Amino acid sequence: MSYYLGIDASLTSPGFCVAGGISPYISSSNYKSKKTGFERIVDIHDEVVNYLSGFPIKIIMEELPAGSKGSYTIERAELVGVIKSTIYRMNLWGKFFLVNPSTLKKFATGKGNCDKPAMILQAYKEFGLEFVCNDECDAFWLVQVGRALDDHWDGLNRTKLREGVIEKLRGV
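The structure corresponding to this sequence follows.
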């Protein structure tokens, strides 16, 4: 069976979600590091390695939003870089896919500029899943994008809009 790992690379509570090809949801969590600065990035990295070492996987991660500014953005860019480096060094680069935040929102809700509660609500409406943490919910939707990219639509509402998002991501 193919497995998918969605990663929302937040500094405060990175979200992780695992699904299978025919199973839209296996598990999810968010990780709260007690560390700060670069030690927090290393701590989150170690958690990512735990997920990557578990089973054969396709990794879908959210890109940094275009035009982001500030110290949080610099630290988040460092985290994303560390994660990407790890994926590369673990020979998983060919199984790695980045998704733009507005593309993810459009896939989840039909609107590329929706707020986080709208994505949480859509996960509940469509799958009956309740996410308390928006980072965990983002990871869930990242997994759904990965599954749809591989034509695993089981459990997903396959709409023209979603098919269009996937075609655009494939470069069709």
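The mean pLDDT is 93.
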